[in-house]
């Protein structure tokens, strides 16, 4: 009887034992498919040897404002992205999971990148909860772009044990994201990295698949923020060293409008310096040079002119309309594609040179623009340490090369397109490249400045 009773007990427990795999189906027993490709390697900044063992950053290497350039989905629509679990508490369909972009779009995920990095202590411009986020994005000096290259899901279509009603989805997800940091002014690559993220959702939700993607991406962003190289690349020292590798010594910033930089640095070592005679005082209001759709200013009485125009205009002899209404043909002496400016040679004639100011505009400094049909007064709204500045001039319609003048009538900057990531300027605002950076790109040196190294 003992043996028979034991056999009956085994038979009674048999169905329950068979149900255990089913009951485990939604309890995390399944294995998340691995992400394709090799795991992320230790990232290195692009072209720069960083010293991550250095002591804490000084004032010159504090993190600069970071902007979120965007998050792209680089996964073919419909490609395999995992599977659905099979189990008593996981209902059909038990099919493969295919990749489709989330119905909520990229906006929510880009906001997540902003929130995660902000929580880690980074200065991220353009808070999505700020009504003035669009204006705040303009202060970003470095841009972060992400590319989602892989996603894997292990999903359970959860059902209620007693009613068999659907309760949504639970499970696990993993993602892989490629990150790139750019300098806003010239899109120079400062840093590249690849990070993985993982998320688990125990309680089913109607938005379970999106919540898993959300959590896995947040984990990948947090992993990026923990990389020493990422933090180093966001320092002002890193931004300056990248410019140093590209353009030589950076210009010393002036203390005020009347001060001159101590050194005008080279940006094209293969070109000789051109000496510019100093022009002092102020010039009477006049119409700027017109070069196609662009504008420009006369630098010297013998016909050198500074202009910001489209490259297509420079492919042949350049038609120029002088302030007195005469049409002449200029030749191109030099170009600086990185700065978007060119040096032109006008035919001999009675040219009036405009005085230049060799220090960067400051925030809230009064400025004006001469459009040919009148003068517009305004102020400098934003002036980052490098690159274009933003000016507010009601009624302004900025054209490339439009001169921006200071209170003394000196040309302090030229109109340029909006820098990458800044978006189109709002009505009555425009971006202007300081004269100092235009001169550096063309290797022009006013008499007031010494050569580098002197």
What does it look like?
Residues 34-64 are annotated as: Disordered. It comes from Rhodospirillum centenum (strain ATCC 51521 / SW). InterPro entries: Peptidase_S1_PA (IPR009003). This is Lipoprotein. Residues 34-43 have a biased composition (Pro residues). The structure is a single chain. This protein has 454 residues and is an alpha+beta fold. It folds into two domains: 23-243, no CATH class; 274-446, Thrombin, subunit H (Beta Barrel). Helix content is 19%, strand content 31%. The protein contains seven helices and 20 strands. The strands form four sheets. Strands 1, 2, 3, 4, 5 and 6 form a six-stranded mixed sheet that branches. It has a six-stranded antiparallel sheet with strand order 8-9-10-13-12-11. A six-stranded antiparallel beta barrel has the order 14-15-16-19-18-17. Helix 2 runs parallel beside helix 4. The radius of gyration is 31 Å and the shape is elongated.
